[in-house]
Amino acid sequence: MSVEVKIFDQLADVAEDAGDALSRGQQPILYDRMRWFEMTQKHCGNGRTPLVVRAMQGDSAAWMFLCRTGKRSAEALTSWYTLAFDIVRRGEDRGLIEAIAGDLGDLARISLAPMASPARIVEGFTAAGWKAFVEGSTQNWQLRVPDSFDAYWAARPGKLRSTVKRKAKKANLEIRIHRAFDEDAWADYQAIYAESWKPEEGSWDFMRDFVTEEGEAGSLRLGIAYQEGRPVAAQLWHVENGHATIHKLAYAESAKSHSPGSILGEAMFRHVIEEDRPATIDYGTGNEPYKADWMDAPRPLYRIELFNPRQPAAWAPLLKRKLSALVRRSATD
Question: InterPro entries recorded for this chain (predicted)?
């Protein structure tokens, strides 16, 4: 059976072509859904033109969501909010990735990140004549959730448990955990963020859309800690299909001595483990030292750089990559 491949430069056309194949009901991973790509393009697209390739064979289909960065270059259609990128699939993708690579022959270079499992894309593009280079991009700390919160908490470092117990008595925080969008809670979240060490939010419009829609779907967990009525710490989680992700956290610098972030963290883990009972929890991307206190271990996330040797524009960067690989290999010999 032949593979049908189609290329799109408008997300509305992708959505119409896909039907419900890229909906929440069909795609269990948040970052694989049509709506996620639509919000990314709308709020974080920076004027980039989408480049989406769909390959279909029988009931199986695969989509690669890219955006153009130049006449002969493209990258994953992601933003700083995208914690995982991959080919989006329906059914088996055998042969479909190679077909996608074959129809991207006018490109010289493609960059994809962050990826947990690059092997299948590398295999498919290599089969189509592309050259692939895989390198570490960042890390994703994860936790295999035990049977109870008590078991989880007992396994945390003693210093963390002691700090939370000691500071909680003095801080006297009121903690509210919201499972739906709430205007007052959202205003408090923004106030905390403004008082925190965090850089300016990339797109408040994206975040509001995300929180609103995930609240409607029942997957939002927004925790706010108050001290004498003043919001001092916040955590934004997403819980769905047996998995929880900690997307955002912040605390007011003025309340730092009370460790409101740690106190709220303990409450959030207790709530999610006891109420939602996910199999796994992850701490987004990044290798900040504090994550080791709350998680089991990190897993690597990768960047794939793909070069098409049939395009002259790929020759110089491809040669540079090959020379760099030789230098690194010589240094370790």
Answer: Acyl_CoA_acyltransferase (IPR016181), BioF2-like_GNAT_dom (IPR038740), GNAT_dom (IPR000182)
- pTM here is 0.95
Supply the DSSP symbol for 199.
P
Per CATH, the architecture of 146-278 is what? 3-Layer(aba) Sandwich (3.40)
Question: How far apart (Å, rounded) are the C-alpha atoms in residues 120 and 241?
Answer: 24
Q: Which CATH class is domain 4-140+300-332?
A: alpha beta
d(CA 226, CA 264): 10
Q: Decide if 4-140+300-332 and 146-278 have a common fold.
A: yes
DSSP string, 20-48: TTTSTTT--SGGGSHHHHHHHHHHH-TTP
CA distances for 46 relative to 37, 52, 78, 79, 305, angstroms: 13, 17, 11, 10, 22
Strands 174-178, 220-227: pairing kind:
antiparallel
More confident residue, 322 or 250: 250
Dihedral sign for Cα atoms in the order 139, 37, 76, 208: negative
Which DSSP state fits 126? H
Domain borders along the chain are 4-140+300-332, 146-278
Name 115's bridge partners. Answer: 302
Q: Are 306 and 132 in contact (CB under 8 A)?
A: yes
Percent of the chain with pLDDT over 90: 94
Quote the tokens at residue 280: 């796994």
